[in-house]
Amino acid sequence: MVGAPSEHRFLINMPDLRTLDDVDVDGRRVLLRADLNVPLNRASPVEQATVADDSRIQAALPTINELRARGARIVLVSHLGRPRGRDPELSMRPVADTVRDLTGAHVSLAPAVVGPQVKALAERLDEGEILVLENVRYERGETENDPKLARELADLAEVYVNDAFGTAHRAHASTEGVAHLLPCAAGCLMQREVIALTGILERAARPLVAVLGGAKVTDKIGLVERFSELGDSVLIGGSMSFPFLAAQGHHVGASLCLQHDVQAARDALAVAAETNRDLQLPVDLLVAERLSAEAARRTTDSAEVPDGWLGVDIGPLTATRYALAIAAAGTVFWNGPMGAFECEPFAQGTRIVAQAIAASSASTVVGGGETVEALKQMGLESFVDHVSTGGGATLALLQGLPLPGLEALRRTPGNQDAARTLTASAAVNP
């Protein structure tokens, strides 16, 4: 492997994780943490909301179905949006309805997250039934990883399963705290994510090409450096390309480009130079007077942005170069669009990259909300080997940063001792 990871990297592999094969869920109450943070449709303020996109619920079905097949009684917990207190518009009701429709199970919605009434409902569950807790972020202690809330959640079940990879980088009560209080395991989705993402780092077919775009420059600088150590080529587009271009002395006009991002880009370029990696930046651009489909626009013949204009997409020459690098790859990871693809006149660079990845014979992994949205918009999601459900969690794992939700599921002596003690206690006090 090229560029061995430095000692400070956080490493986790499937053999490190406790799985459903390591815990006894047969007939037991299982607290299942899933990431069901789905978009909602609201026809009018007075009508019942419905789930607009059930992809995240579909992703949780393998674990739900496996638990039900083993007679588990499922207490399902998730967050939905960012409520301020008990916001009725962010109730889990539409999620519970969709879980019922997709599973055919008896599904009920708890009136709250925890409490005596919720505990009584959990204890009355029959095998295969599902109790959906209300939005766990109704409880302020969730994001604070409050031990009291973690304990109340643990009291609802005998086993804990975490299948919410998208929240694994957060140390919250329902993702990290409760895992130390019950026998715990990773769900099927969590396993797939770890296998796919660690595979990029440890056993990728060469060449390994990373395509990185979007606007969150600071969040992804570490990823650029990581792939400069481990990969063969890094292709940069989207708004994050402008700090790199500015670091090389190019004019970026009115494009998004913060000074601290320029310094971070300069550092990442130095890493790429030290490791002798192929880090490619746009050689031409689509620029516009403003971010609007009606705005004047033109393609530049260089990476220079005129004063008062802003870069809105990579240019056709850059898109062709990136597509050729993708076609020659053995493994491709893509995170971040190449431009403002939501506006059709600015979508061509992202479309060409997406089509190249879809047509590639390489192992392909795509992550990030906007990137997945672009794939769906272009009808290409099914042509990718693995579409990650994580945003920040995906970036953290690939950078070698700790993920508290994953760390809590490790096969450590402490976790194993807790599993034995609590399983024995549950047998005595069912």
Average of the residue pLDDT scores: 90
Structural class: alpha/beta
Shape: elongated
Q: What proportion strand?
A: 5-15%
Q: Helical percent range? A: 25-40%
CATH architecture of the largest domain: 3-Layer(aba) Sandwich
How many angstroms does the end-to-end distance come to?
50 Å
Strand order of the largest sheet: 5-6-4-1-7-8
- Which segments are poorly predicted (pLDDT under 50) over 5 or more consecutive residues? 1-10, 413-430
For the largest beta-sheet, the strand count, sense and barrel status come to: 6 strands, parallel
Q: At the third CATH level, what is the topology name of the largest domain?
A: Rossmann fold
Number of strands: 17
CATH superfamily of the largest domain: Phosphoglycerate kinase, N-terminal domain
Number of helical stretches of at least 4 residues: 15
Total domain units: 2
Radius of gyration: 23 Å
Overall CATH class of the largest domain: Alpha Beta
Description:
- With 430 residues, this protein is α/β, with parallel strands linked by helices.
- The chain folds into two domains: 18-186, Rossmann fold (3-Layer(aba) Sandwich), CATH 3.40.50; 194-399, Rossmann fold, CATH 3.40.50.
- Helix content is 37%, strand content 14%.
- It is built from 15 helices and 17 strands.
- The protein has helices at residues 55-69, 93-103, 116-123, 147-154, 173-177, 188-202, 217-230, 241-247, 259-275, 316-327, 348-359, 369-377, 392-399, 404-407, 413-428, and strands at residues 29-33, 40-41, 50-51, 73-77, 107-109, 130-132, 159-162, 184-186, 208-212, 233-236, 278-280, 285-288, 297-299, 310-314, 331-335, 363-366, 386-387.
- The strands form four sheets. It has a six-stranded parallel sheet with strand order 5-6-4-1-7-8, sandwiched between helices.
- The N and C termini lie far apart (50 Å).
